[in-house]
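Handout, section 4.2: multi-component inputs.
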Amino acid sequence: MNMISLSAIDLSIASLLIILLAFISLTLRLDLAGQIIIAAIRTVLQLLLIGLLLKLLFTQVDLLFISILSIVMLLIAGREVMARQQRRFGGWWGYGLGTMSMFISSFALTVYALIIVIGTEPWYTPQYAIPLLGMMLGNTMTGVALALDRLTTSAWQQRQVIEARLILGQDWRTAIGDITRDSVRIGMMPMINAMAAAGLVSLPGMMTGQILSGTEPLEAVKYQILIMFLITAGTGFAAILATWVGAKHLFDDRQRLRLERLHIKTK
Amino acid sequence: MTTLNLSGIRVLKLEPFSLKIEKKLVCISGPSGSGKSLLLRSIADLIEHEGEVYLDNKKCSETNPVLWRKMLGFLPAESAWWMDKVGEHFSGRKTSYISQLNLPNDCLSWDVGRCSTGEKQRLALARLLSNQPKVLLLDEPTASLDHDSVLLVESVIKNYIAEFNAAVIWVSHDQAQITRIADRVFKIENNQFNEVKKDSTL
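Output:
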């Protein structure tokens, strides 16, 4: 199969859609036009940059180099998670909570996939390691951001309920139990939906990209299944971890609700 | 016999407050924002505070907070409900307070949403009493009740004190009520707790 190379003009035509969308949201006063345009420009610049970088990178089979790049990716993902929170934990917690959860879950599962499932030699072969980690981080980031945002917003709105439950002698886990369950569910919803609808409603992005660039469909499918399992598990673990640690940090050692540890996002 | 001992509890700019209660009903009154609710919340260990509270010989800071809050029943001015049905909020076995508070027996199957403010206030009290705490910390428990219900709540609490040797701190603005129920009265003025005679005017 031959791959049809996309030209800059092809992509410019596609970008007209984004401009149209931004224009519509402007006329509807959705307050989103700026965000759409900035996000689109970021997509172009970041992907072009990473494309160039990857080209260079795939020739560099060096563990230290890969590690540094991975950490940079993680730190950026951590910042994005923090930026999505309406109310976030003050100080290092605001940044550290999401970042730590993503680190534990994404890195562990990526290494697991590389060594045990795919079995590349060496395991940190950049052509596999970097895209896989990027995929993991990207999805985990969404899950953690959704879960933490739900956790902190709900805790804030339902502080009277949480306190009422503490007053009646429930421990912190029970008092905030409905909220933590809900937060994890919200964090995992996109991936559960994606798995349930895969192939029937939507063709997953990675697989589509592979098929469009000429890979045999069944090969693309096998990788897609692997990826979906990995990111669902990764997102789930990270969302559970972040929610649990975050919920615990909403209380002190005397199991008092400490909402002053949350700071509202300043624009 | 329950002994509640407050030792130098301090909230806002109030001077530290010490008090020892045994099987008594203590009323506290004072202007809004003077720290009455914060005082009750500190005693229930819901907020950080200076000073120490002892229940019998148990020190608050050395007692499991869950256990502490079960023994010191705090009734906030506004009740909160999180399940659909009233009955789902009752963990204590003793539900006889529902009928004592003149609520129908089937109210446990009610939707929380259809309860009036007054019903919720009495239900919240019944819910608290069903845990059988040794100390009651009541923040204006009769604020939205009609006169007959107010008298009913007062007698239920009085009976509760007699039955369980409980100690009660009751925040109230109603001088007539304070005269009816209080064994001792404290008034917050100029950031100070002053013990006053119960029939003195506020």
